[in-house]
């Protein structure tokens, strides 16, 4: 999701009124299309000054967007200006009152009276922003808007009136409060509830609060001044759940400080193609890594009383050709083995309150329309009881704009309402045609009521009607605690732990701080890239590698700097200067990679981030030429890859002495990188994505399935350059004493000893992999099941313990039933993903080359697990939300493994209602509700599932 914030939001420039103006604080800030420095004079209480527009300015459309000091119902403006008549003013102005500055809606219809001081009147409209647009060439002579104030009026709601609203009684059950409120809401109010307005806009007259939100994948990204942490791909590279929980707690503290309630974060997409620009927002290519790191983020953030919105649901991370949202046509098996896994994990374990739907397809149906995905799997299987947020524009995409499943916006709205998509980031639910359809019966009221109920229930359940901490964000305030020394240290530690050492030939690293001359070269050397979804930067907030090097070395060390080239241009004129600097140096540090930065940076060609997919994976622009030219100078070169994705480092792996990946490391990245460069921190990051030898190998990920023929190309081997989970250290480790045991409940205990055999302290990421040797279906060559990052002193040994549940050993068999099959499992514990021989009998070859890499053993597992479902009917009742009769079915699992299934209802042989899903744990039962749209007295009703059916005469 992304809105184009750069022109409006990040352009905000706070213009406080004079202290003597405190009683007339109508506006908190403003942004103007021209003469920005003077716009504050239009609300400073001084009619001698103002926002002036010259004749040349007025030849073009001009505008000013005000942020109201107090959101509310606005029904008028007072404008003080000379040289205009009421008639000219009326013809020249378009006025918007809106809660969401990115979705202005329709302009107000207004009247104008007065002279010099004009009264502009219109029906009351609730908003937090006011925009005035001056039409092109509508005013001929120069004009100054000396003072602009607003009038509050219309349907203002006071505390006394709200006391009489029964749904505001906090002692009532949530469902009752929802029903009471739905019964008094008009169709237009229900559409207003679902309109996204920088979160949930709220309806003050009904006491429905607004709930603001932020993007926060690596820091509070609205406004300016919050701490900037490593981008998500770097957080994934830490393989440290406890650290990520701490990072999220810190972001949560800064969110609370900004009076914000919800984050549209984290990204739980499993990234399977390095060309995809949004790899940087993910935690990597493995569903378990994404689940555990994403779950840790959610746990930390929610611990502050905040709501999360995991995204993008679902299958967003495997786009065709790496092109964003180009669907590849994934099967049910692939979805459930890979792409649904992280979402299921966090919904069931952390009870997330909302989730964002993706632009992708689910079995050919756009996600924003998919009832199977958003109701069947999300709600019925996983028990999700929150609300669904649309990715921006996803509902509108159902029309001819993208997907062609809806002929017009009303049909698109009906399709998404049927799937239960609540908060509409985009321009569909607030479209006048859709609102009119809601009023005249053109929308399905059952679907509208259900969808509204999901949002209202979440708000009631979280106490937001009773105590709402949300306040309008002042985009120019640095809130208490933002970027504090303690928070900077968390950011620095996260950056340190994310850095992956890929090569260290001749122990070139760590460098000596007493080195005589060091050349720091590359477009990223003094231009640290923080990644997409970064707030407007404060001056000096980002610490570059060059700054870190200069601070780290002594005064006797000469630091030479040459950019060499830009990130993406093809200007080679400065390469010779970089080569000259390299020849003078004892060692060269090159910082190359992606350009991915704050949206506030205009005129920048980005190579990573949303809507910036990259085809070749060769270092962009002339960076590859720069690398080759500098390496040819003959001095030891240490490459620092500052990127949001894997790149083709084949040349670097052959010609550079050292390679570090610091990803997009956040504001403290320069210090963190030099901590590693000079040995103040021992690197222990591990690759969250496979690094290919060439883009032609893509998609390439470690947990592939066996081939029916061969693996290699004629002109290229199958193997990656650097495998998933790989990373070096300044110390060495050894694995030993791998033991396994099977418990009575079928779980498996796995223990191994890891020893620091080197001379310095360091972290090791201990990774547990399992290979299912033979099964009823084709399984993956190996799969990550768990991991643990541990710190070891020189010579220290630790026993690392894991427990594998039967569910972790399970597979989807040839009938798509989840089962655990008896047989042989290879258990592997090591510091990277295991190696293999890409040929026949590939699973037999899965192993670690030496005990330095890891150890493995074969486990014979003689237990079997499977679900066993039975169906019974319950008593008919009336659903209070949609007012229809419900016939419940109880599904019981008398087996010994959690599984999913579906139930269909037939009345006198004809299918009735939708197919409904369930997931049931062993020994538990779940109610599946069917809507009765007809009288079933005297009729035969049959319920069928995959392995069982029942028939009952009513």
What does this protein look like?
The protein folds into five domains: 19-156, Galactose-binding domain-like (Jelly Rolls, Sandwich), CATH 2.60.120; 160-461, TIM Barrel (Alpha-Beta Barrel); 487-689, 3-Layer(aba) Sandwich (Rossmann fold), CATH 3.40.50; 733-865, Immunoglobulin-like; 867-953, Immunoglobulins (Immunoglobulin-like, Sandwich). It has 22 helices and 40 strands. The two termini are 49 Å apart. Residues 764-833 form the Fibronectin type III-like domain.
Globally, the shape reads flat
CATH superfamily of the largest domain: Glycoside hydrolase, family 3, N-terminal domain
Question: What can be said about the biggest beta sheet?
Answer: 7 strands, antiparallel
Radius of gyration: 30 Å
CATH first level of the largest domain: Alpha Beta
Domain count: the total is: 5
Strand content: 25-35%
CATH topology of the largest domain: TIM Barrel
Poorly predicted regions are 3-24
Distance between the termini: 49 Å
Protein name: Glycoside hydrolase family 3 C-terminal domain-containing protein
GO molecular function: hydrolase activity
Keywords: Hydrolase, Signal
Family: Belongs to the glycosyl hydrolase 3 family.
């Amino acid at each position: 999701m992304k809105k184009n914030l750069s022109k409006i939001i990040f352009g905000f420039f706070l213009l406080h009124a004079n202290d003597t103006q405190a009683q007339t604080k109508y506006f908190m800030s403003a942004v103007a299309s021209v003469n920005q420095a003077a716009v504050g004079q239009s609300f400073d209480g001084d009619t001698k000054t103002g926002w002036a527009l010259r004749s040349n300015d007025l030849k073009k459309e001009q505008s000013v967007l005000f942020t109201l000091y107090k959101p509310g119902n606005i029904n008028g403006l007072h404008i003080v200006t000379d040289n205009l008549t009421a008639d000219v003013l009326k013809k020249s102005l378009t006025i918007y009152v809106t809660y969401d500055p990115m979705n202005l809606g329709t302009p107000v219809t207004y009247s104008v009276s007065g002279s010099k001081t004009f009264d502009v009147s219109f029906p009351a409209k609730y908003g937090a922003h006011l925009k005035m647009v001056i039409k092109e060439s509508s005013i001929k002579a120069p004009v100054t808007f000396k003072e602009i104030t607003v009038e509050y009026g219309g349907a203002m709601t006071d505390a006394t009136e709200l006391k009489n609203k029964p749904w505001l009684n906090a002692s009532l059950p949530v469902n009752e409060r929802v029903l009471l409120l739905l019964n008094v809401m008009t169709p237009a109010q229900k559409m207003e509830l679902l309109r996204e307005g920088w979160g949930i806009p709220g309806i003050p007259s009904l006491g429905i609060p607004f709930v603001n939100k932020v993007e926060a994948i690596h820091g509070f990204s609205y406004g300016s001044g919050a701490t900037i942490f490593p981008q998500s791909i770097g957080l994934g590279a830490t393989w440290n759940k406890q650290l990520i929980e701490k990072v999220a707690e810190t972001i949560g503290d800064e969110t609370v400080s900004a009076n914000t309630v919800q984050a549209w974060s984290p990204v739980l997409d499993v990234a399977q193609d390095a060309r995809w620009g949004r790899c940087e927002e993910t935690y990597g290519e493995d569903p378990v890594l994404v689940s555990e790191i994403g779950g840790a983020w959610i746990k930390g953030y929610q611990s502050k009383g905040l709501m999360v919105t995991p995204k993008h649901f679902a299958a967003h991370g495997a786009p065709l050709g790496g092109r964003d949202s180009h669907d590849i046509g994934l099967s049910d098996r692939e979805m459930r083995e890979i792409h649904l896994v992280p979402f299921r994990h966090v919904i069931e374990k952390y009870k997330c309150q909302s989730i964002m739907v993706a632009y992708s397809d689910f079995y050919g149906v756009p996600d924003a329309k998919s009832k199977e995905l958003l109701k069947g799997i999300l709600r019925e299987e996983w028990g999700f009881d929150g609300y669904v947020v649309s990715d921006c524009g996803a509902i509108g995409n159902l029309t001819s704009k993208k997907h062609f499943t809806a002929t017009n916006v009303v049909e698109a709205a009906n399709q998404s309402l049927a799937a239960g998509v609540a908060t509409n980031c985009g321009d569909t639910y607030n479209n006048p045609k859709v609102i009119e359809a809601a009023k005249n019966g053109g929308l399905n009221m059952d679907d509208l009521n259900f969808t509204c109920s999901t949002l209202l229930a979440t708000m009631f359940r979280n106490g937001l009607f009773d105590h709402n901490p949300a306040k309008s964000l002042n985009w120019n305030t640095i809130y208490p605690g933002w970027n504090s020394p303690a928070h900077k240290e968390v950011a620095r530690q996260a950056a340190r732990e994310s850095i992956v050492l890929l090569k260290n030939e001749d122990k070139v690293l760590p460098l000596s701080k007493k080195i005589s001359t060091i050349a720091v070269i590359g477009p990223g050397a003094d231009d640290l890239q923080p990644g997409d979804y970064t707030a407007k930067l404060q001056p000096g907030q980002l610490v570059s590698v060059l700054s870190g090097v200069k601070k780290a070395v002594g005064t006797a060390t000469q630091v030479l700097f040459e950019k060499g080239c830009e990130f993406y241009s093809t200007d080679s004129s400065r390469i010779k200067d970089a080569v000259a600097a390299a020849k003078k140096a004892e060692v060269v540090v090159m910082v190359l990679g992606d350009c991915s930065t704050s949206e506030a940076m205009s005129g920048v060609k980005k190579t990573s981030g949303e809507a910036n997919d990259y085809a070749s994976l060769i270092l962009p622009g002339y960076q590859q030429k720069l690398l080759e030219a500098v390496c040819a100078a003959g001095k030891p070169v240490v490459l620092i890859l500052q990127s949001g994705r894997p790149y083709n480092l084949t040349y670097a792996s052959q010609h550079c002495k050292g390679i570090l990946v610091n990803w997009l490391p956040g504001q403290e990245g320069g210090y963190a990188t030099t901590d590693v460069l000079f040995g103040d921190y021992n690197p222990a990051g591990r690759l969250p994505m496979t690094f290919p030898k060439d883009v032609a190998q893509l998609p390439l990920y470690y947990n592939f399935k066996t081939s029916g023929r061969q693996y290699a190309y004629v002109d290229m081997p199958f193997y990656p350059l650097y495998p998933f989970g790989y990373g070096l250290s300044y110390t060495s480790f050894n694995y030993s004493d791998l033991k396994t045991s099977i418990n009575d409940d079928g779980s498996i205990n796995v223990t191994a000893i890891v020893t620091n055999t080197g001379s310095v302290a360091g972290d090791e990421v201990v990774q547990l992999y399992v290979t299912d040797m033979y099964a009823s279906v084709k399984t993956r060559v190996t799969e990550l099941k768990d991991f643990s990052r541990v710190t070891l002193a020189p010579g220290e040994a630790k026993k690392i313990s894991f427990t594998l549940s039967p569910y972790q050993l399970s597979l989807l068999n040839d009938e798509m039933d989840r089962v655990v099959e008896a047989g042989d499992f290879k258990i592997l514990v090591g510091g990277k993903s295991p190696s293999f021989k890409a040929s026949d009998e590939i699973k037999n070859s899965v192993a670690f080359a030496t005990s330095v890499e890891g150890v493995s053993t074969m486990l014979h597992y003689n237990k079997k697990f499977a679900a066993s479902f039975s169906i019974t009917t319950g008593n008919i009742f009336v659903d209070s939300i949609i007012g229809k009769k419900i016939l419940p079915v109880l599904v019981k699992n008398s087996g010994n493994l959690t599984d999913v299934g579906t139930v269909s209802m037939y009345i006198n042989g004809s299918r009735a209602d939708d197919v409904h899903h369930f997931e049931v744990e062993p020994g538990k039962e779940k109610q599946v509700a069917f809507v009765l749209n007809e009288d079933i007295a005297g009729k035969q009703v049959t319920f069928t599932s995959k392995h069982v059916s029942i028939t009952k005469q009513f």
